[in-house]
Amino acid sequence: MRVLITAGPTYEPLDPVRFIGNHSTGKMGYALAEAFAAEGAEVTLVSGPTSLPDPAHPRIQTQRVQTADEMYAAAAAVAPEADVWVFAAAVADYKPKTVAENKIKKDGDTLTLELVKNVDIAGTLGHSKRPEQYSVGFALETTNEQAYALDKLRRKNFDLVVLNSLRDAGAGFRHDTNKVTLLEAGGQITTFELKPKADVARDIVQTVLARLSHHA
Fold first, then answer.
1. Is 118 annotated in the active site?
2. Are 174 and 199 in contact (CB under 8 A)?
3. What's the pLDDT score for residue 173?
4. What is the C-alpha separation between 161 and 179, in angstroms, rounded?
5. Which of 22, 102, 118, 157 is catalytic?
6. Is 148 helix (H, G, I), strand (E, B) or coil?
7. pLDDT digits (tens, 9 = 90+) for 16-70
8. Cβ distance 150 to 156 under 8 Å?
């Protein structure tokens, strides 16, 4: 089985020293790569900037990228051959319209930035998904969590959405634990307790493998 995983944040440059980014550590995506590899899958891990070392597992190939455009190009190159897509990266929704060649100098009390929308990696690839391919997305919500997650599932042609709530203590960014609810295209909803991200990854992988055996 071939698996494509995106992980970590993207950094969108403003100038040579500054960027727009987010607090994603990449831990969840890296844990998923390890969990799939442990089940015998060949994994391509497309990782944004993280402080994590490349996974040592011989069945995991890591590709490092910075921006959403770079992440999309790397993912799109692998997606047609992959059986499973897992979009665990926190991709910046917007990027600066122009990148300054030199460091932007302090000038005045305000600075106005014009941002343009980034490519929707999961949504764009979702349009080309074949029936036998299985796509997993992540939703990090603060209000109307399940409604937003189910809307995301439909819009991006996911088979499964992993919902994190920022309202749960110990879940989401900057934690080694996570508490997730799995929402499936078939309507099944499974809620797990707070647990280490490695255990969360195993839960997700086991769910994917179980569905793939019926999916095929």
1. no
2. no
3. 64
4. 13
5. 22
6. helix
7. 999 999 989 999 999 999 999 999 999 999 999 999 999 999 999 999 999 999 9
8. no
